[in-house]
Amino acid sequence: MLLGNEIIKEAVQKTKQYLKAKEIEKAVEVSEQLPAQRLAKLLRNFSSEHIYSFLQHLPKDRILEVINGFAEEYAAELLELMPEEERLKYLSKMDSDEVVDILNQYPREKQEKILEDFSRSKREEVENIASYSEDTVGAFLEKDFLSVISGNTIENILSEIKNLSETIEHRSYVYIVNKNNKLLGVSSFRELLFADKKAKIDSIMTENIYSANVEDPAIEAAQRLKARKLKLLPVVDKQERLVGILSMETAVELLSNEIAEDILALSGVSGEESFFTKSGLSIKMRLPWMIGNIFLNLGAVAVISNFENTIAQVAILAAFLPMITDMGGNVGIQALSVSIRSLALGEVQIRDIKRAVVKEMKIGLVNGLVLGAVFAVVAYFLQRNLILGFVAGIALGINVLVAGVVGGSMPFIIKKLGKDPALMTGPFLTTITDITGVSIYLGLSTIFLLGLL
Fold this sequence. Notes:
Blueprint (H helix, E strand, L loop, with lengths): L1 H19 L3 H8 L4 H8 L4 H8 L4 H9 L3 H9 L3 H10 L2 H8 L4 H10 L2 H11 L15 E4 L4 H11 L8 E5 L5 E6 H6 L11 E2 L4 E2 L4 H10 L4 E5 L5 E6 H19 L12 H28 L1 H6 L3 H29 L7 H31 L2 H31 L4 H27 L1 H4 L1
Parallel strand pairs: 1-2, 5-6
Antiparallel strand pairs: 2-3, 3-4, 6-7
Helix pairs in contact: 1-2, 3-5, 6-8, 8-10, 13-14, 14-17, 14-20, 15-20, 17-19, 17-20, 18-19, 19-20
């Protein structure tokens, strides 16, 4: 395994070296050792024109695999460089859901022009997926699955699967439908192999299977697929007709994007923003959150101003303030990230808030005691003041406890209110931990002022 990794690393370095030197043929030869996804990742470091020149020397199937490895914005930019006929050829071979993602990067007029050149069946398939709201399962449908009519023998089905082996990617399950395409049941490919070949598929299929509706939220369907450890999730319309599947790969991508968007939102960055977003639009997305943070932080400023006399008499108190507030913020973000990730993956529900609070209280008590004790010792040795060490340690310990509980529970509360926990929790969390830390620290300092002088 180590040897394989070394070969890939060497191939990456050589391919990059030849590309920079514009020795395209050598780059193509070395890149044959790289998986398409890894090659796509490497190519993203070069301009679209440079990549297009390189791709022209690859086998056609390899080109499609590499393009599929790019983000839709980048793939659209690359396809734009191709002659119209060549672009149409690659788009026609892509899965319809991927085509929709790429077409959405073009102006409406260009989308319609490309659709006009598709075959009738391909166009209808793409338009059907595009008609669904982008946050529903229908927008992520895949047509690459196996389905058979009820009453077929297992022998006939296996023969059919063998003939389709090169065109159907998802072969883990075989879905059984009636003549109207209504979903009746499912059988795994493994069950088919070990069953009586003369028996009918109905005798071994599992009925009352779990499915998603095309209008269901895509994230919820992805969470259910993951929770049930399925490889595919059948998708039906209002008449319970099988119209497609949601694959594990797509579900993982949806959940990963959801988590990434939530993490971005913690910093006040929109999940809709990407590397390709125009600078002006990025400013428009980020600036309101930064302005909002100014007003939220006025709460901490107000608290500090009330203890102005205390700070004036013991100036060293101000030196420890950032450490106390920053530690509370760091602990809070840890708890917040775990809660938001668990909610995004469907591992927990809103009703689990009590468990979240209890867990964070246990963690906060231990972490608060340890961190508070360490900080108290550090503060004492820096200033040789036992009271200062005591005050600083107590303030840090309590702030760590509060930050953990707030960070771990607030996403549940905000989600229950129907709001986005990632967008709203971050600013509130930092403000609460700042005010808590400052209030406790300076409050105790005021009480023990004589001991600090």
